[in-house]
Amino acid sequence: MRPDLVATAAALDLLPRESVRGSVIGLGGLAVTLEGFGPLAAIGDRVRLEPPGGLPVLAEIAAFRDGRAEAIALGPLTGLSAGARAVLAPRPALAVSDSWLGRVLDPMGQPMDGRPPPAPGAQPRPTHAPAPPAGRRARLGPRMALGVRALDLFAPVRQGQRLGLFAASGVGKSTLMAMLAGGVAADVIVFALVGERGRELREFIEDDLGPERLAKSVVICATSDTAAPVRREAAYAAMTVAEHFRDQGRQVLLLMDSVTRFALALREIGLAVREPPATRGYPPSVFTELPRLLERAGPGEEGCTGAVTALFTVLVEGDDHDEPVADAVRGILDGHVVLDRRIAEGGRYPPVDVLRSLSRTAPAVLDPHERPLVAEARRLLSTYGEVKDLVRLGAYRPGNDPEADAAVRLAPAIEQVLTQPKGETSDPDQAFAALAAALSDPA
After folding, report:
1. Do 272 and 285 contact (CB within 8 A), yes or no?
2. Which of 296, 299, 298, 333 minimizes the C-alpha distance to 314?
3. Residue 29 CB burial class (10 angstroms; 0-12, 13-18, ≥19)
4. How far apart are CA 327 and CA 25, in angstroms?
5. Per the record, where are the segments of Pro residues compositional bias (predicted)?
6. What is the C-alpha to C-alpha distance for residues 436 and 370, in angstroms, rounded to an integer?
7. Which of 78, 246, 317, 367 is packed most tightly, with the most Cβ within 10 A?
8. CA-to-CA separations, 8 to 42, 89, 112, 229, in angstroms, rounded
9. What is the pTM of this model?
10. 3-state DSSP: the chain helix, strand, coil percent, rounded to 5?
11. Could you report the per-residue pLDDT of 407-439, keeping only the tens digit for each?
């Protein structure tokens, strides 16, 4: 490259972003068409839209077409018109610090709890960052006690593992998240509430979480009425907060509710910039972005003693566990937990379907004396599922099948072990002792 061009490019890099200006030339739906930035703007850049006589609105560049930029606004477009000035703004970054603990914040780090903004950390972190290099990433740590017997027994988790919670709406995901927050052995808990109902935020904070659990937590929330980029950014912001504490050597539990609403926000953005819909209306970029987010959870680079253990909830539409988002997430994560509506309707909470739940790290987690207990319990519950309708109808005859007889005797005791009221905590040793007692056959 010619020396004068190299010098020009270097000078452009040093140009303050606030000095780079363009204008609005088109508005349609969620998208804003901009011109005047030339090669100085890039995908993911933020732009401040300044309508005459109105309040500025942030937008994010999502596509380029015919030499023009297409951006998605992070707020309402009311009052914006063609010709409005657009100013290139800094890319999203968060200066996380310990003062964020105990706070409820939006994806930009602004308070939602009525308190002053938290003190910023020394070094801002970009919210859109790559995962640690696979070849230099640390191994998973030892078993992490979750405090929920059904999970500690049938879906055990190691430090740095990523697990999915798959359920339809109204089955008990929020209650299970609150139980995990109260019983898990973690230094810091980060909540990502993506597309949450505004009415439920205070209920979750005050009733489910409580002041004691909130004190070691950071809650990042984007309610359902916010723009799609804000809802998407809630997931990235929470992951950035979790990475900050992980890099300090702390054990972090990240609870994200939900990955499905994150994917829906990505779909809104993709369709707004005319990306072609593919699988069930989801553009291809959704399935590119999902692993970029989910792979960031886990251990840090080798030598880092901290880890992000993550549980991501997935809303399955109509109990369809093979819909595209659920299928993609299940293939990325290290295991899945299925919450079943029929179990909840039967009165057993948490309604974990242990036969359909799986932890890919279970073989390395369970001790030799624990594995046969889990295998026997699974076998008995499976057999009982095959004959329980006959038992209810009075058509079952004891003595014909010894295995079925054992299942009919012992399955209720196993179900009792899996029953755990909200506020009750357990540890793996207690859970396996209870399971061993339930499997002791007096017959």
Report:
1. no
2. 333
3. exposed
4. 40
5. 114-133
6. 9
7. 246
8. 18, 21, 44, 33
9. 0.90
10. 40, 25, 35
11. 999 999 999 999 999 888 889 999 999 999 999
